[in-house]
Amino acid sequence: MLLVASPRVGAEEKAALAGVIDSGWLTMGERVRAFEEAFARMHDVEDSVALGSCTAALHLILHALGVGPGDEVLVPSLSFCATANCVLYVGATPVFVDIESNDMPIMSLSEAEARCTPRTKAVILMHFAGYMPDRDAWRSFAQRKGLLLVEDAAHAVGVKGVGTYGDAAAFSFYGNKNMTTAEGGAVIARDRTVREAIRQARGHGMTSGTFQRISARTPIYDVTMLGFNYRMDELRAAIGIVQLRKLPGWNEARRLLTSLYRRQIAEYCPSVGAPFAEPRASAYHIMPVVLPEHANRQNVIDRLRAKKVQTTIHYPPIHLLTLYRERFPDTHLPKTEDFARRELTLPLHLGMDRDSIETVTAALAQAVNVRAASEVAA
């Protein structure tokens, strides 16, 4: 089966893990700090904070920025549910915003402006599929409206300019991401005070961690804020250090694979849309396509699977998931709903080459055209 995603791990990662085990120190310590510094250098920022997940990163960003009960946060519905869940974690209200179009499935700036109220405090801008929205336009919008601007950069690790849009950015290193630590996340925050509040909050609000207390030879600590258990461990940090060194080359390889996909789709199945045709900075995290109106998506999925090609969907709209549909029954986002009904994510990972992309594209063309041919016959 040609999978949608496949992590690239090998001998270097194994050696890094063995080094942690041999060191005798497994929890948050020197390797976590080294990973934070390397991650910050890659993104040309002062520092970063490593965490247990991107969800933890989003939660702690809102927590540290003071978002809470009575506040509204503009969020995309075309995202993983964590983007909205973190708003509920801090007691605020998510307000779902439609996308621009099927070709540009990122949060619409005009729709975001229309959904602002006196209670709107922040906006979470998600870099869908790894593609970057217009930085200047969103910065101007946030400044004009007096809003906190948070990047959900789960798909966009390693892209030039990511993490510089507004107040903070959250990253994911889950197993299907461009680089992985199995589980894990990180925060880039512009304000050092916010960054250090997040650093302290990840470890129960304690003023020092176990490694720091051993190094300082004192067992004394204090708790000065409400905190959480959102730490990254040494094992994951060790993998992350290795993966970071390879990330620029990996992202470039994804760019080339995506470019090949676009040419093949245009030639063999032109009725299938490939979003983000307009050039823009990207990590090329996933390969979403939009099926034509006539196509039955489940039939296409089944036919591709019969050809040993796995596909998936990014994403079921958050506002249509049971939890949110019951809380916000009047939310209707026609562009998001149309995109989500027709979107299909094709395999895109470093184990692929020209032949595998041609295999996927040929199978997709055949699956889409089966329905079209049957309609013509009828």
Question: Can you walk me through this structure?
Answer:
The protein is α/β, with parallel strands linked by helices and 378 residues long. Helix 6 links the parallel strand 4 (120-126) and strand 5. Helix content is 43%, strand content 11%. The protein has a 7-stranded mixed sheet with strand order 1-7-6-5-4-2-3, sandwiched between helices. It has a two-stranded antiparallel sheet with strand order 8-9. The chain is built from 13 helices and 9 strands. Helix 1 (11-23) packs antiparallel against helix 9 (234-268).
Q: End-to-end distance, in Å?
A: 34 Å
Q: Strand arrangement, largest sheet?
A: 1-7-6-5-4-2-3
**Biggest sheet details:** 7 strands, mixed
Helix coverage percent: 40-55%
Average residue pLDDT: 95
Integer-rounded radius of gyration? 22 Å
Q: Helix and strand succession?
A: HHEHEHEHEHEEEHHHEHHHEH
Q: Structural class of the secondary elements?
A: alpha/beta
Oligomeric organization of the protein chains: single chain
Question: Unreliable runs, pLDDT <50, ≥5 residues?
Answer: 372-378
Total DSSP helices: 13
Proportion in β-strands: 5-15%
By DSSP, the count of extended strands is 9
Shape, per Cα inertia axes: globular
